[in-house]
Structure formats: structure tokens, C-alpha cells
Amino acid sequence: MKIIYMSIIGNTRRFVEKLEMDSLELSEVNAFTEIHENFIMIAPTYAIEMTDILNDFLETDDNLSYCQGVIGAGNRNFNELYCFTAEDIALDYDVPLLYRFEFQGSDNDVKKVKEIVTEIENTNYV
Ligand SMILES: Cc1cc2nc3c(=O)[nH]c(=O)nc-3n(C[C@H](O)[C@H](O)[C@H](O)COP(=O)(O)O)c2cc1C
């Protein structure tokens, strides 16, 4: 399972480093990369103008068909806007919203996400 993500301030990047998994950080330069393996997207929460490279990636080639779900990274102080970017992606592309965490994630968040990944991998193999 690959982790596809973007990061503006660096929180999501630090979270992904803690996962110690194969990953790809999206930027303006590589947003249209074609992928041919299952992935989970981690989306930090910002206005759509700042996160549209995530949409570009999902809409490239058959990329969406490999998406196993999306995880939101945000800040609970935004209340009802907490992790809306990941929620919108889940709705717009009909993929599961797997988990949400704040900032660079706690040890427990790392553990939970690893469990979710293992569960999806096991489901895919039966
Ligand atoms: C300008 C700005 C707007 C943000 N808006 C939201 C928001 O609407 N909802 C939310 O949950 N978090 C919001 N956040 C928090 C970020 O999504 C959060 O800090 C995240 O960890 C940033 O990820 P990054 O460091 O990888 O870019 C905002 C942060 C900034 C700087």
C-alpha cells in the first residue's frame, strides 16, 4: 500500500515519515503522475485552491480505481470545517473516509492508521 499525500506546512509530511511506508508527496510538478498500485490518500485541510493537486492526481488516468480511501489531517479548532478536504474527496470520488487526525498525529494515530492499512490489505487478499 502506498501513501499519497501533500503537505504545505509540513505536518502531514512528518506524520507520513512516522508511518515508515512507501509514499509519494504530491506537488505541482508530479500531480499528474499515473499510479498502478493501491494507495491511501492523506489530505491536509485547506481551501480547495490549495489542495486541488489532490484532485488532479485522483483524476489522472485510472488513478482513482486504485484509491482505497482518504484520511484527513486538520485542526479541531476549525469545528465543523474539521478535515473538510478529506470529507469532500470521500464524497466527490465515492471513496471511504478512513480516519482523521490533527497536525502531525499522535503515536496512537500512527498505530490506528497502520491497523487500517493492514485491515484493507487483508481484505484485498481474501
Ligand atoms: C490557512 C489555513 C487554513 C486551515 N483550514 C483548516 C480547516 O478549515 N479545517 C481544518 O481541519 N484544518 C485547517 N487547517 C489546519 C491544517 O489543515 C493542519 O494544520 C494540517 O496539519 C496542515 O497540514 P500540512 O502541515 O501538511 O500542510 C488550516 C491551516 C491553515 C494554515
Automatic annotation (TrEMBL):
Record's protein name: Class Ib ribonucleoside-diphosphate reductase assembly flavoprotein NrdI
Molecular function as annotated in GO: FMN binding
Domain of life: Bacteria
